[in-house]
Amino acid sequence: AMPMDAFRVSLSSAVSSSSQGSARDDGDALGDVFIWGEGTGDGVLGGGVHRVGSCFDVKMDSLLPKALESAVVLDVQNIACGEQHVALVTKQGEIFSWGEESGGRLGHGVDSDVPHPKLIESLSNTNIELVACGEYHTCAVTLSGDLYTWGDGTYNYGLLGHGNQVSHWVPKRVNGPLEGIHVSSISCGPWHTAVVTSSGKLFTFGDGTFGVLGHGDRKSVSLPREIESLKGLRTVQAACGVWHTAAVVEVMVGNSSSSNCSSGKLFTWGDGDKGRLGHGDKESKLVPTCVLALSEPNFCQVACGHSMTVALSRAGHVYTMGSCVYGQLGNPQADGKLPTRIEGKLSKSFVEEIACGAYHVAVLTSRTEVYTWGKGSNGRLGHGDTDDRNSPTLVEALKDKQVKSIACGTNFTAAICLHKWVSGVDQSMCSGCRVPFNFKRKRHNCYNCGLVFCHSCSSKKSVKASMSPNPNKPYRVCDNCFNKIRKATETDGSSHSSISRRGSINQGSLESIGKDDKLDSRSQNQFSRFSTMESFKQVDRRSSKKNKKLEFNSSRVSPVPNGGSQWGAMHISKSSNPVFGSSKKFFSASVPGSRIVSRATSPISRRPSPPRSTTPTPTLGGLTTPKIVVDDTKRTNENLNQEVVKLRSQ
């Protein structure tokens, strides 16, 4: 794993929105990520090397929200959490993923865990808008409405929607019935997927057990299929549980034509056990069925847990139904037989967003407060302990953060917060000339050190500022940082040339290395996990589908680099060819023992790069100068790190 000092902590080190308009001067504030719960401590999700359940003498979980560490500046727009993996989308339309690899769900084309956000390179030239994570697969939607899926399609027939059982270790576009149709939202369960189009149509595919697909039967579907019973109605949003599905559907209400208006109603179907469908019984429903007990509220959002459903009305009220075993219904008096509205500490709050894990719930209010409740093990509720909560409880650690979005994984939680500039320093006067600010003398933030300056002390811009939202665009920096960055760049440039001379290795010689040579013992260290069967062990914890899903399918081919890079019968679409077609792009050029080339150590040392090259793992094809001489590179980066430390302490 990479040394901790090589990472810029995403948020805790840095934005005071109190400095009016300072962030708006160069664009909107950055979106940063906090994460807590299972595996977010020293587990892979938290930047460590330990898989969940692999060892018990390390602090695997984080019981409180902690800032996501990343080697590159990530302006996060959208985030989704699976079982032990996370995917995020930046405002620039790039998609990153990290966590425990299992069946290709990370989308990087290798069977190796990834402890920090890593760019999915095969989608680097695609403008991604949103992402969703199941337990074993991941889906992404582009700005133009195309759907891409990847992960382990061998657990279940049609899990990826490509009409076959083949695993896809890199994203593949879903065509078939969705050809030419604009997808607006997506939801993933462990065994099925729901797709909402911009015209309000609802498609589902995957395992049809319990009628979870809503097609009137229990058959599995390997290609997206529209739910016939909802034709003519507009679906707003859908959510997938394990064996049930829910959707908000616009229905015309009113007696006379003059008073007709649409209202969002809650429809549920699939397994009715524990009252999760909200119909007052435990019967399964094979088609979408309106929850009559909630005919009054106008719904806008819905989320599903393992055995519960959560819905949000346009009035900002939260309703729950289903199992109450861990207090996840949020109402101590609720028995789960019928839907109930959550009161308590939310009674005077307007909830704007809801998210649901397997057995816990998180909500975001209009005051940017986060409340959680339900199962508390692994610290997934973010209260610093592992206790269950049966009513909404404020996440105190995020009280001073401006949270803009939340997401739940199976047993962990994440939040996107607006980037805070350095606080705790006197912001009433310029950090340079020490003259107080006033109406005419505006304050500006330096996008490198985060301190506030007047215009004359921060009139220069640099493309290498460590906090820049877009690494390809110049942002305001103070005079001191400008000089430091320029000096560091010159030092970096000279050391690059000396490394190239002493190492006697040029780009051409690197490109001439054969495929077989690329997978020597050093490369083997980088891709440390290639045991396919290891990916199946975690599935033993599943309470359902245990026997059916664990059958090893012969069509599943694990990408075990053995010199020949045998990928067997795996489908690789044309759009994915850049990853596999050129071995230069596929394998990392980092030195042994390092997941990320040390060039990414300091934000200051970054060279200007073309759009979409902000991957944390530079590849052979993307390096301008190869860095093979370890000692020289290490020395250079240590010097640059010291410069950064000095700079930030001023």
Please characterize this protein's 3D structure.
By secondary structure, the protein is of the alpha+beta class. The chain has a domain at 484-649. Helices cover 12% and strands 28% of the residues. The protein contains 9 helices and 34 strands. Strand 25 (351-356) and strand 26 form a beta hairpin. Pfam families: FYVE, WD40_RLD. One of its GO terms (molecular function) is zinc ion binding.
What is this structure, in a nutshell?
It is built from 9 helices and 34 strands.
Identify the notable features of this structure and list them briefly.
alpha+beta; single chain; 650 residues; 34 strands; Znf_FYVE-rel; zinc; 9 helices; disordered N terminus; globular; zinc-finger
Largest sheet: 4 strands, antiparallel
Strand ordering within the main sheet = 3-2-30-29
Residue ranges: pLDDT <50 for 5 or more in a row? Answer: 1-27, 495-630
Alpha carbon gap, first and last residue: 30 Å
Strand content: 25-35%
Q: What is the strand tally? A: 34
How many distinct helices?
9
Q: Please give the share of residues in helix.
A: 10-25%
Which overall shape is indicated by the principal axes computed on the Cα atoms?
globular
Q: Supply Rg.
A: 25 Å
* Alpha-beta content class: alpha+beta
Mean pLDDT: 77
RCC repeats: 31-92, 93-144, 145-199, 200-251, 264-315, 316-367, 368-419
Biased composition (Low complexity): 494-505, 598-607, 614-626
InterPro entries: RCC1-like_dom, RCC1/BLIP-II, Reg_chr_condens, Ub_ligase/GEF_domain, Znf_FYVE, Znf_FYVE-rel, Znf_FYVE_PHD, Znf_RING/FYVE/PHD
Domain FYVE-type: 424-486
